[in-house]
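Researcher: Re-running this chain for the archive, since the previous output was lost when a drive failed. Same request as before.
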Amino acid sequence: MELKCFVCGTTDKNRVFFECYHEGEKKVTCVRCLPSLIHGQH
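Model: Regenerated structure tokens:
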């Protein structure tokens, strides 16, 4: 099963992923997008 980052759309073939919850749904995000989710978009 291929995973896709819900923020940027990259696949797990390119990056490491983390599970998270967003708007009440279980989703996955890549390590590149994780800092913007933690600190917000600047």
